[in-house]
Write a structure and sequence with these properties.
There is one protein chain. The chain starts with a strand and ends in a 7-residue tail after the last strand. Helices cover 43% and strands 16% of the residues. The protein has one domain (3-231): 3-Layer(aba) Sandwich (Rossmann fold). The protein has a seven-stranded parallel beta sheet, with helices on both faces. Helix 3 runs parallel beside helix 4. The radius of gyration is 17 Å and the shape is globular. Helix 2 (36-45) links the parallel strand 2 and strand 3. By secondary structure, the chain is α/β, with parallel strands linked by helices. The structure holds NADP nicotinamide-adenine-dinucleotide phosphate. NADP nicotinamide-adenine-dinucleotide phosphate is lined by residues 8, 10-14, 32-35, 56-58, 82-85, 105, 109, 132, 134, 177, 179-180, 182-185.
Length: 238
């Protein structure tokens, strides 16, 4: 069973997948930027033994400290780059400076973490990098150009990593979620959610715990690399 580092572990989707990964026998190290007390209470409530560290992943020094801690904890086999922020702004109002801030969280946090995780994975001859993207990268809605761009960058990054480490037992993939019943979904106005639901053939939002099984699939799939897995109720099809 694997040892997984999940970023953005205080968020809604992470809280849906952590119990599934625990049930499947994986152990976890968790990072949160601001919700460690809440996350600790959640783990206690679910009788899950996992260590938590607080880190702002836009800060290089904090990510270096995070990976020093990871090594002290015995290292990881799997990195799930889940931390992310949503952003709504019409393209004509989205200046480069604001876009850069969005990329700092949604894209560069993954680069900071993956670049620090990969040397040990290469040395071990095994590793999994799993980036979290969104259906919005493929089917944007109004005001999502920045979010879509930052998530698209993550997908290209996973494909590039996959090539660089293919001969070292490491895979790199992306899971592009559709609208899941958790986390940032609840930031979307209710009327818009109802409209979005009409575009999902399944007729409902996804159960976020399913992502735990998708992560487990990728952990156990050495021949699946450089791919984007779409989990979106049929809302978008490649
Ligand atoms: N919910 C959906 O329907 C949906 C659909 C597609 C994709 N996604 C993606 O799924 C991932 C999780 O989303 P969610 O719905 O669970 O959202 P969420 O509840 O808002 O959680 C986002 C997490 O990212 C963390 N984060 C934000 N900025 C950070 C920073 N600078 N440094 C470190 N951590 C930071 C947050 O940290 P703290 O709260 O600890 O401060 C939080 O734990 C995101 O990448 C999102 O884009 C979600």
């Amino acid at each position: 069973m694997s040892r997984i580092l999940i970023t953005g572990a205080g968020g809604g989707i992470a809280k849906a997948i952590i119990p599934v990964l625990h049930e499947l026998g994986h152990s976890m190290l968790l990072t949160t930027r601001s919700r460690s007390a809440e996350l600790k209470a959640f783990l206690d409530e679910h009788h899950i033994d996992a260590s938590i560290i607080t880190a702002d992943l836009t800060n290089e020094a904090e990510v270096i400290a995070l990976f020093t801690w990871v090594e002290q904890q015995g290292g990881i086999d799997v990195l799930v780059n889940n931390a992310g922020v949503a952003h709504a702004a019409a393209a004509w109002k989205l200046e480069a400076e604001e876009m850069e801030k969005l990329f700092q969280v949604n894209f560069f946090s993954a680069v900071r973490c993956a670049s620090k995780a990969l040397p040990a994975m290469r040395a071990n001859g095994f590793g999994r990098i799993i980036n979290i993207s969104s259906v919005v990268a493929h089917k944007p809605s109004f005001g999502t150009s920045g979010y879509a761009a930052s998530k698209s960058a993550l997908e290209g990054y996973a494909r590039g990593i996959a090539i660089d480490v293919a001969n070292k037992g490491i895979t790199a993939n992306t899971i592009a979620y559709g609208y899941m019943e958790a986390g940032m979904l609840y930031d979307v106005p209710e009327a818009m959610l109802e409209q979005i639901k009409t575009t999902i053939p399944k007729g409902r939002f996804g159960d976020a715990s399913q992502i735990g099984h998708t992560i487990d699939y990728l952990i156990n799939s050495p021949f699946t690399t450089g791919q984007t897995l779409h989990v979106n109720g049929g809302q978008w099809m490649p």
